[in-house]
Each structure stands twice: as structure tokens, then as C-alpha cells.
Design the sequence.
């Protein structure tokens, strides 16, 4: 099976702009999670979608939003970009085989966002 | 709420030496614990997971971890380090589907 894919891999945006990142999960995986990784804050959970519904949400401002489509592909959007949004954004999918919490996550390579 | 603490942000070992990466967790419910590895410019890859079936868990690439409830620990070990083990390692705890809380990571350096 193909792994988790994320597009684009690299992105440079200007403060105040908005950005949309895309994630295609492993075929058959219905859960998609998003994480922000920065040197200062480490890996922080953004949100998780399952069957097009947001089930869990982290402590990020409303500028961060996401959605999931019927084919399980997911997008996240960041509006009014700030310099502090520069990070590696990781998407992960899970198989949902045993109720969820025990399922490991399969990560994509990430999208490196730089805000100038 | 659950949390994970990884002791030591940097660990350096010689090739062939024992690798020990420490992880302590805090959880109000029985936790599910994971170790992931991240190589430069890549996403995270699962090494192993604990889901209460057995306290000693074997993973890929010769790594294993032991769940010790009395010590709230889930340390990662490998008997003999290889140069290819140099990477960043993350311990994670999950109590909700699709949401994991990660430690700050430990960078492992392997000296020839």
C-alpha cells in the first residue's frame, strides 16, 4: 500500500496570507490527524477527523481549521498567517481496527511551512 | 489528562553499546504507549506499541520497551547501537482515538 502523502512538501507564505495543506491517508484508513512540529514546542496535536467528522481538537486558535472528504482525504487551512506558524505540519492516518486509542499512527513526510 | 516526559533531550552512545532512552508517562486511565522514530526531513515511523497485552514489547530494528506500571515508565532499549539508529525518538501516549500526546523527543547520536 502507498503511504501517507502530503502536498505540498515545502511552502513559503507571507504574513497575513492563508494556506491550505493536503493529506491523503493510507487506503482504508478513516482517521486522519494533524500535528504541528516546531523546535520550541515539539509535536502538538491540532485535530483529528474520522468519517468526515472532527472528533478531537487541540489547543490552537480558530485560524487553524480542517476538513475531511468522503474519500478520507483531509485538508487543513491556516488563515491570517503569523510568523509563529512556521513549522512542519504532519498528517497521520490510523486504521481504526480496535476501537481507536490502541491504533498506531502512520505519518506522512510533512509540509514545511515558512512564513515571512 | 495524559502527559509524557522524556528524560534527556540528547543521548550519545558508541556503536555497539547499549541504547537506553527514557520515557515516563502520566495518565488518569490505562494508557496506550508508543515509540516513534524520526529521521531528518521525514515523518515519524512507529517502532513499537504497548496495548496491555504484554509488558515487554518488541519492535522493529531490534528495539524493545518494557512497561512498568509501578514506575510509570516505558523506556526504550536496544542491546547494540548501529550508526543507522541515529535519529530523533519520540514517546507518545494515547487515550483517545486519533490523538496522541508526544514527549519532547530524544536525539540519539551514535559515535563510530
Sequence:
Amino acid at each position: 500500500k502507498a503511504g501517507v502523502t502530503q502536498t505540498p512538501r515545502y511552502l513559503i507564505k507571507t504574513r497575513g496570507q492563508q494556506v491550505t495543506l493536503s493529506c491523503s491517508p493510507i487506503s482504508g484508513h478513516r482517521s486522519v490527524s494533524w500535528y504541528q512540529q516546531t523546535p520550541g514546542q515539539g509535536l502538538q496535536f491540532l485535530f483529528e477527523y474520522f468519517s468526515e467528522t472532527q472528533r478531537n481538537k487541540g489547543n490552537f486558535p480558530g485560524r487553524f481549521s480542517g476538513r475531511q472528504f468522503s474519500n478520507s482525504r483531509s485538508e487543513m487551512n491556516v488563515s491570517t498567517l503569523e510568523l509563529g506558524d512556521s513549522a512542519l505540519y504532519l498528517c497521520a492516518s490510523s486504521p481504526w481496527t480496535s476501537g481507536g486509542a490502541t491504533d498506531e499512527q502512520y505519518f506522512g513526510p510533512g509540509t514545511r511551512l515558512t512564513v515571512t | 489528562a495524559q502527559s509524557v516526559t522524556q528524560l534527556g533531550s540528547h543521548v550519545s552512545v558508541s556503536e555497539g553499546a547499549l541504547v537506553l532512552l527514557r520515557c515516563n508517562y502520566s495518565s488518569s486511565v490505562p494508557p496506550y504507549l508508543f515509540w516513534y522514530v524520526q529521521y531528518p526531513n521525514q515523518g515519524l515511523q512507529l517502532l513499537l506499541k504497548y496495548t496491555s497485552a504484554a509488558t515487554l514489547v518488541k519492535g522493529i530494528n531490534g528495539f524493545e520497551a518494557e512497561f512498568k506500571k509501578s514506575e510509570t515508565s516505558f523506556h526504550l532499549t536496544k542491546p547494540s547501537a548501529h550508526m543507522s539508529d541515529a535519529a530523533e525518538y519520540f514517546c507518545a501516549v494515547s487515550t483517545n482515538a486519533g490523538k496522541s500526546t508526544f514527549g519532547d523527543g530524544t536525539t540519539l547520536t551514535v559515535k563510530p
User: Anything to note?
Assistant: The interface with chain B takes residues 4, 31-33, 35, 42-43, 45, 48-50, 55-56, 58, 90, 92, 94, 96, 98-110 of chain A (CB under 8 Å). Chain A has a mean pLDDT of 92.
